[in-house]
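Journal club prep, shared notes

We agreed each person brings one worked example of a sequence with its structure written out as tokens. Mine is Peptidase M48. I'm keeping it raw so we can talk through how to read the token line rather than staring at a rendered picture. Sequence first:
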Amino acid sequence: MLKFTPILLAVLYGLVMWRFSAWRLKSELDQRSAELAEPGLRELNKRLARALDLARIKVHLYDIPAINGLAAPDGRIFLTRGFLEAYRAGRVTAEELASVIAHELGHVALGHSRRRMIDFSGQNALRVGLAQVLGRVVPGLGPVIANTAMSLIAARLSRGDEYEADAYASALLTKAGIGTAPQISLLEKLEHLTGAGGAGRPAWLMSHPKTAERVAAIRKLESGWHG
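Then the structure, token by token:
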């Protein structure tokens, strides 16, 4: 039993750290956000809500300059001030912002936040166990190898979540009569907007799939619907 104690402690540590991170994020969002009331998005939000048989979809504005969307662990959907400013400057369209909202709704509907909590705890335990085993084989390098392996697994799982949220958004946008064109066009301009190209970074280290792969997956999904 004693030899499993570090692993059990790692699971407990992962759960505690996830809860703490979620609490800290909630506090940050509560302090720096308010409900988004942008006239140009109102009708599109209504169309998304009707497609989901909801009375309304509440979207919050997160007051940071980065261009991003966020699905909080408590289920709230956020667009950043940077995204809203890009919209008001004509760099993105209202339909493209609606595709971001649909994508974040996908993360919520598919339970990705809860899944990441379980994954994080499991990876923490696996990291400890792997470091112990490898430490006997390659002393001093066990923790390094274990950390690298867990980083690769975490990135792979995150990319899977993004594909799933993309597919959910594609279906929702199509049902709402908006279509996937804004989703694709936003993905194609997003790297330029955020300055996060990652062109020289290996795909297996990235938390999001490459743009071309995401667009190809959406087009394949759409062709299957119309095929």
